[in-house]
Amino acid sequence: MNQFTALTQQDERGICCIDLAGYLDAHTATELESIMSAAITNGCRRIVVNFADLEYISSAGLGVFMVFIESIRSDGGDIKLAAMKPKVFTVFDLLGFPVLFEIYPTVEEAKQAFPSLEA
Amino acid sequence: MTFNASHSGTINVPATTDHLHEIREFLRERIRAAGFSEFEENGIVLAVDEACSNLIRHAYHNDPTQSVEVSLAIESDAVTVRICDTATPFDPSSAEVPDMPTYLQERRNGGLGILIMRRVMDMIDYVPCGPTSNRNMLVLTKRRTA
Question: Which of A17, A52, A57, B121 has a Cα at 20 to 30 A from A81?
Fold first, then answer.
């Protein structure tokens, strides 16, 4: 049983979109941490996480974003979150995470929220 | 709604995180069948997942030779989940929880499971092992709101 997948793709603006699917818990959070770590090692600093196909998240999943947010922002980047199902947003909201993370209704809106890199 | 034995039950899984989804599925199908709202179901499943995750990671260190037992009892007005273990006793009902504004400001990580349990469930009781039992028992109760 494949409980969780996370696929990274980079668009023409250099924004990395990580598409999550399945169940993000204390078991699968390590997989997301590895994938995000690889994206950052590869130079990605503008990250959009697409939650559209994520069915479940526990605090271990939330913790993955806390691991990286400080260093990403100190490099001028950000992790923006998008397209959460209400049941997933409820978990973020329960702990006050919307104060720290920008959460958008769609992936496109999250991408548009990054400033243009053109001078 | 009639409450019968099919709404209750017990699951016993090895103390490794790859079994957490089995606990969640066990709870979901029974709580749903008993007519609780999806919001209540999601909250209970999350709280129990957090409790079992803490137990598996911090007390059992993902030891597959150990096990976690989760028992569900559904009444007309409440769901009660009992989580039993034989690890070193740890009482989540009296443990310190983080102040979230400070937690987020300082970009901390981890330690949110107990806070989730407290925010979601109506009652948390803990019975450590003792002369009458070699098992610790965490009892999480959620009252039906609708």
Answer: B121
List, as one string, the DSSP characters of B74-114.
E-SSEEEEEEEE-SS---TTSS----HHHHHHTT--S--HH
pTM of the model: 0.93
In tens, the pLDDT along B16-43 reads 999 999 999 999 999 999 989 999 999 9
pLDDT 10s digits, B85-111? 999 999 998 898 999 999 998 888 888
Give A4-56 pLDDT, tens digit per residue.
Answer: 999 999 999 999 999 999 999 999 999 999 999 999 999 999 999 999 999 99
A74 lies in some domain: yes
Cα–Cα distances (Å) from B28 to B39, B85, B128, in that order, read 11, 22, 27
ipTM higher than the 0.90 cut:
yes
Nearest by CB: B112 against A59, A67, A87: A59
Of B53, B100, B109, the CB nearest to A67: B109
Domain B5-143 CATH superfamily: Histidine kinase-like ATPase, C-terminal domain (3.30.565.10)
d(CA A97, CA A102) in angstroms, rounded, equals: 9
Contacts with A90 from chain B: Cβ below 8 Å: 39, 42
Alpha-helical segments (H) within A4-101: 29-41, 59-74, 86-94
Radius of gyration of chain B (CA): 15
Q: Residue A63: which domain range?
A: 4-112
Structure tokens at A74: 């100190």
